[in-house]
Design goal:
The structure is a single chain. The chain is of the alpha/beta class and 181 residues long. The chain has a domain of 102 residues. 45% of the residues lie in helices and 14% in strands. The strands form two sheets. It has a three-stranded parallel beta sheet. Strands 4-5 form a two-stranded antiparallel ribbon. It is elongated. The termini are far apart.
Amino acid sequence: MCDLCEPTISEIDKKVLEPSCGNGNFLVEILERKLKKAGKDEYKVLIALSNIYGVDIARDNLEEARNRMKNIVNAHFKGKKNSASFLMAMDAILKANICYGNMLTGRKKIFLINWIPDGNGGFELEKWNFADIEKLREETKQTDIENLAKMSEELLHPPIKIPDKPKPKPKKKPEKQATLF
């Protein structure tokens, strides 16, 4: 399933939401793909991690999903001792991004943190709820519909291009023949 979303799903700065994440099967796969792009750079790993979101109605599933993701990150660094700030940031991101909620009946009660890299090794935070996200999605959908309508019109009624007439080739002057006297 994740292959259908490539190459976007592997980019460390692209957001992915699993609305019923369970114990994290898809989250783990997505994280592994993003980690390949992030390499061993702690900040890039945090960016990758901060763009993965999961929601579930079972709290024990959430804890298992967070632990599995943490184990994937630890295995990615293969025993390298990570900085204390990295470990604290990883825990904060996982706690915020893998959250409790009911996507069928309680979307307005679910808040997500948008982690915006500040370019200095930190993040600026924005808190969004699903009402904000759905509003943004509707605005984007309207723009997409307008663009699709324009593309359809162009396909149905392509502009007619009249090819330029080829310019006549200059006639070669006959070569003068020498006359003998």
